[in-house]
Design brief:
The protein is α/β, with parallel strands linked by helices. The chain is built from nine helices and 19 strands. The longest helix has 17 residues.
Length: 348
């Protein structure tokens, strides 16, 4: 019997009698991180990393939460469990399972480059590795976090010189915190949407040291906002909420901005290919570092990535899940401006 079965409720460990990131209510849910496609309401109990708990409390309300630290070992019905850094967002973890000498790792979402907030991805040796492939095409190769920050800062400084308000869209958990840290180096006038403010406050109360931000409210005047930087979730773009800003320009932080022309197609002024997911080299690096003989690909460009792994001699297959449909980067290829997936894969 495999350590993980792919059920209609999520990733089930039958020996341990628990689920990992279930999309339907279960008795015991182990959670890799706080994004909405991995952490859902309704389960009887939750186990997560201690950094993830305040996010779950914010998004799911009061529940029986149990927390662990990275590398701490616990047992459930004889299954040895430990959480390890995934580097995706604050608190994001890979979950290692061991039973009768067999080791599986469920990675959730991850990136291998340290962004300074989310922790350094830890390669965990295993027999079977369950991976995402959100950006599982060879065209996706990110700049360093430092270079992306400089690009954003230069754009803001030019907008300020032009007396324009800079509005940057970034997912409320993950990129928003990275963006705010980059912005704080060039301005103190940082305003945020309520969704981002709520996450910001939850993290501050949990002890994270983050720059000072101001929530945009109905009382916030246009004079205050003039020449400022505003961080908002992608859902705010094009909404009536945006109309309050004077003389503003919009920049999008998303891995999809790697594809030339996406900023133009989405009718925004600038695009920054900042992602909390691994790029193509990062995905390959992570898979190879595990030493896994078998890989399951849960979401993203599953067919392309799993086929490539098989060509490398690593047994890989696709599995259907409900991951990858969070607010920000769970777009379909066509919605991301990618019409010919196979051609993009072959062009590299």
């Amino acid at each position: 019997m495999p350590l993980i079965e792919f059920s209609d409720k999520g990733l089930c460990c039958p020996q341990g009698q628990f689920y990992i990131d279930p999309w339907k209510p279960v008795d015991k849910a182990l959670i890799t991180h706080g994004h909405s496609d991995h952490a859902r309401w309704g389960s009887q109990s939750y186990l997560c990393h201690s950094f993830t708990k305040p996010i779950l409390q914010l998004r799911l309300g009061d529940n029986p939460y149990q927390t662990v630290e990275w590398g701490e070992t616990i047992f459930m019905n004889g299954v040895k469990i430990s959480f390890h850094p995934a580097g995706h967002v604050i608190g994001s973890s890979q979950i290692r399972l061991e039973y009768n000498g067999e080791v599986w790792v469920v990675s959730g979402d991850y990136k291998v480059v340290n962004d300074g907030l989310s922790g350094q991805f830890e390669a965990v040796r295993c027999n079977t590795f369950i991976t995402e492939s959100t950006f599982g095409l060879p065209i996706y190769k990110w700049k360093s976090p430092e270079q992306i920050n400089k690009d954003i800062q230069s754009w803001i400084q030019q907008n300020t010189a032009d007396k324009k308000t800079s509005v940057i869209t970034a997912y409320s958990l993950g990129k928003a915190q990275r963006v705010i840290q980059a912005i704080a180096e060039v301005t103190e006038k940082i305003y945020v949407h309520g969704a981002i403010y709520n996450v910001h406050e939850a993290l501050l109360k949990a002890g994270w040291k983050l720059p000072t931000v101001h929530r945009v409210t109905y009382e916030t005047t246009k004079e205050e906002l003039a020449g400022s930087v505003v961080v908002a979730p992608p859902s705010a773009d094009g909404s009536s909420w945006m109309k309050r800003f004077p003389n503003y320009v919009v920049g999008v932080c998303s891995g999809w901005m790697q594809v030339r022309g996406n900023a133009r197609r989405r009718n925004v002024d600038a695009g920054f290919a900042m992602s909390d997911h691994a790029d193509w080299p990062g995905l390959l690096q992570a898979v190879k570092a595990t030493g896994a003989e078998k890989v399951f690909v849960t979401h993203g460009f599953q067919a392309t990535f799993s086929r490539y792994l098989n060509e490398l001699g690593i047994e890989a297959g696709e599995v259907k899940t409900e991951y990858g449909n969070d607010e920000e980067e769970g777009l379909t290829p066509s919605a991301a401006g990618i019409e010919d997936v196979e051609k993009l894969a072959e062009d590299e």
